[in-house]
Write a structure and sequence with these properties.
globular; about 550 residues; about 20% helix; seven-stranded mixed sheet; alpha/beta
Length: about 550
C-alpha cells in the first residue's frame, strides 16, 4: 500500500533535523524525520572522538534575557519551551558530547516529533510529478513533495595519496593514548580534529608531527569557529617550545607500509614535500599515521535525475540562497550542509548558527509552498523610529549575532504606508525576493571588518578604531552593526555603527543619532521620506515569535 504523500520528508535526526521537525510541526505541516540510528544525534555518539565539544556553554551571563543568553549558548535548539535549554544539562564551558546526546533525545521527546528510527535511506528518486520517493534499508518507501537533507557530512574527506588506505582514520582510530606509547605519529590535517588528536597523545607519543599543505588558522584571529580553537591548541605550545613535536607545512606525496623486518625505523615511510623549503622532498618514518582531514557529504543515495550538483571540491551540495539544490527543485538542505553558503566565513556549519538558518528555511518553505508570507511587523517610517527599531534589535538579537553577515533584518519601505520589518532573512535571499521586489529596503546585519582576519588581535602596536568613535566606524574591525540601503539589489548607501567593547550600540549621540541621519538622507534621496506621524515607534520584539 502506498504511504501517505507528506509535505516534507527530513533525512537525519540530528540537531538540524530536530529543529526543522519542531518548526514544521508547529506550522501544522505533514512531515516525518528518517533517522538511521536508534535515537537522535547519532553523529554525536561518536564525534568528537575525544568527547569534548568545542561549542561553548555559558549558563552564567549576568542577564536573565533569554535572547541575549542565546548569544553565549551554542548548543540549545530554538524552542517555545523556555526551560528546554542545553545550559541545564551541563555547566562546563566546553561540555561533554554525551550531554548533547541526552539533550537532543529530550528535545525530540518533549515535542513528540514524528521520527522513524533505525531507518537508513538507501535510494532517492524524483517522480514525474516532482515529488520524492525515498527507499529505506527495509524496502519501505516514503513519499513527500519536498525532501530536506539534514544528514551532515558523513563520509571521510580522504585526500588522494598513494598508500593512504593503510593509515588509521580519525573515525575509527583508538582513542586510548596508551596505544601510542613511545611511537612516532604523523597526523594528517590541521583542523580541530587533528589538533584534538595531537593533544590527546602529547603525554604518551614519542614524536608527533601534524602535517598539511595550508597554514594553521586560529579561530581567535579569523572569527570562524571551525578554525583551530584554543581548547585544542596545547600541541602548538609543545612545538614552539621544542618538545619533540612539529608542524609540517607541505604535502604528503606517498605512504608506504614497511614489513616487520628487524631494525626497520618505522612501520610507515612517507615521502613529504616541504612547501617552505624550496619544495624539498624528504622521506620520513613513523609508527602510526592518523588521517584527520574532515568529512564530506554522501550523495550516493540519489538516483539519476535528482543527484545534487556539488561544490567546494565535491564536499558539499551546491545551494541557492534559499538553501535549495541549484539543480534539483524541491530538494533542500539543513544543518551543517548550509555552510556551503558561508563556508569558513560565518557559523552556518554549527548548531549556534544553523539553528537560525533552519528557522529561516522553515519560513522560506512557508512562503514558497504554503502561501504564508514572511512574518513582519509594522513600523513608523520616520527616520528616528527606524533608528529606534534597529538599535533595539542589534542590541538584543542572537540570530544576527551568531549568523553575522549572513542573516539580516529587513526594513522595507512602502510609500504612503507603514514600513515593514522582517527579522532574520538570509541576506542573499532577500535580494530579488518578493519581500523586496520593486522597493527600497535596508538590510541590518552584524559584521566584522573586511580585514579583521589579517591583523593579530593581540598586537598592541596595531592601530585600532577607537571605541564609540563615529568617525572611525567605517574602518571598525570588530563586530558591529552595518545598515545598507538597496533598491532592486543595487547598493545605494551604507552606514557602520561605531564598535563598542561591551557590544552595546545604544548611545544616543554615538549610535542612534548618526543612524537616524543616515535614514533621513537615504529616504530623501530615494524619494520615500515620510514625516513623523507623532506615534511612538513600533519596536520589533524578538522573544515572541
Amino acid at each position: 500500500m502506498r504511504s501517505k504523500l507528506l509535505d516534507h520528508l527530513v533525512v537525519g535526526g540530528g540537531p538540524a533535523g530536530l529543529q526543522l521537525g519542531q518548526l514544521l510541526q508547529a506550522a501544522g505541516h505533514s512531515y516525518r524525520i528518517l533517522e538511521s540510528g536508534s535515537a537522535p544525534g547519532t553523529f554525536f555518539r561518536t564525534f568528537p572522538r575525544h568527547r569534548t565539544l568545542i561549542s561553548i556553554n555559558k549558563p552564567h551571563t549576568g542577564t536573565d534575557d533569554p535572547e541575549l543568553n542565546l548569544r553565549m549558548d551554542w548548543n540549545s535548539l530554538l524552542s517555545p519551551d523556555p526551560g528546554l535549554l542545553f545550559t541545564r544539562y551541563s555547566k562546563r564551558y566546553f561540555p561533554h558530547a554525551d550531554d548533547l546526546v541526552r539533550y537532543l533525545a529530550d528535545f525530540a521527546e518533549a515535542f513528540k516529533l514524528d521520527i522513524a528510527y533505525d531507518t537508513r535511506v538507501e535510494r532517492v528518486r524524483r517522480e514525474d510529478d516532482g515529488h520524492f520517493t525515498v527507499t529505506d534499508q527495509h524496502g519501505h518507501e516514503h513519499h513527500a513533495r519536498r525532501l530536506i537533507m539534514a544528514t551532515g557530512l558523513t563520509l571521510p574527506n580522504t585526500p588522494d595519496i598513494p598508500g593512504i588506505e593503510t593509515a588509521d582514520d580519525y573515525a575509527t582510530v583508538s582513542v586510548d593514548p596508551e596505544d601510542f606509547t613511545d611511537q612516532r605519529v604523523l597526523i594528517l590535517g590541521k583542523g580541530n580534529s587533528a589538533l584534538e588528536t595531537a593533544d590527546s597523545l602529547v603525554e604518551t607519543a614519542a614524536v608527533i608531527h601534524v602535517a598539511g599543505p595550508h597554514s594553521i588558522r586560529m579561530a581567535w584571529n579569523t572569527h570562524y569557529v571551525g578554525h583551530v580553537r584554543a581548547v585544542n591548541n596545547n600541541f602548538l605550545d609543545t612545538y614552539q617550545l621544542k618538545s619533540q613535536n612539529a608542524l609540517l607545512d607541505g604535502e604528503v606525496l606517498s605512504i608506504a607500509k614497511d614489513g616487520d623486518a628487524a631494525g626497520a625505523a618505522g612501520r610507515y615511510r612517507v615521502r613529504f614535500s616541504f612547501s617552505r623549503a624550496d619544495e624539498v622532498v624528504k622521506e620520513l618514518s613513523y609508527d602510526r599515521i592518523i588521517v584527520c582531514t574532515g568529512f564530506r557529504f554522501d550523495a550516493s543515495v540519489f538516483g539519476p535525475g535528482c543527484a545534487p550538483e556539488m561544490a567546494i571540491n565535491g564536499r558539499f551540495p551546491a545551494l541557492s540562497p534559499a538553501y535549495e539544490s541549484v539543480n534539483v527543485p524541491g530538494l533542500y538542505f539543513a544543518g551543517t550542509l548550509m555552510q556551503q553558503r558561508d563556508f569558513k566565513k560565518s557559523t552556518g556549519g554549527f548548531i549556534h548558527g544553523f539553528r537560525y538558518a533552519v528557522r529561516a528555511l522553515s519560513r522560506i518553505l512557508d512562503e514558497r509552498h504554503h502561501d504564508r508570507p514572511w512574518p513582519r511587523l509594522p513600523l513608523d517610517p520616520a527616520p528616528a523610529a527606524l533608528a529606534d527599531a534597529v538599535v533595539a534589535r542589534t542590541n538584543r538579537s542572537s540570530a544576527l549575532w551568531q549568523q553575522f553577515g549572513v542573516l539580516g533584518d529587513l526594513v522595507v519601505m512602502v510609500p504612503g504606508e507603514q514600513a515593514r520589518y522582517h527579522e532574520e532573512v538570509p541576506v542573499e535571499h532577500a535580494h530579488g525576493s518578493q519581500l523586496t521586489e520593486g522597493r527600497d529596503y535596508f538590510t541590518v546585519t552584524l559584521e566584522y571588518g573586511p580585514d579583521h582576519d589579517k591583523v593579530d588581535p593581540f598586537d598592541i602596536t596595531v592601530r585600532r578604531t577607537a571605541q564609540n568613535s563615529v568617525d572611525d566606524a567605517f574602518d571598525a574591525s570588530y563586530l558591529h552593526p552595518v545598515i545598507r540601503h538597496f533598491r532592486d539589489g543595487e547598493l545605494l548607501g551604507i552606514h557602520h555603527m561605531a564598535e563598542n567593547l561591551e557590544n552595546e550600540w545604544d548611545d544616543p549621540e554615538v549610535h542612534h543619532a548618526p543612524l537616524a541621519r543616515f535614514f533621513a538622507r537615504e529616504l530623501e534621496v530615494s524619494g520615500t521620506a515620510a514625516e513623523p506621524d507623532g506615534e511612538p515607534a513600533v519596536r520589533p520584539a524578538t522573544a515572541d515569535r
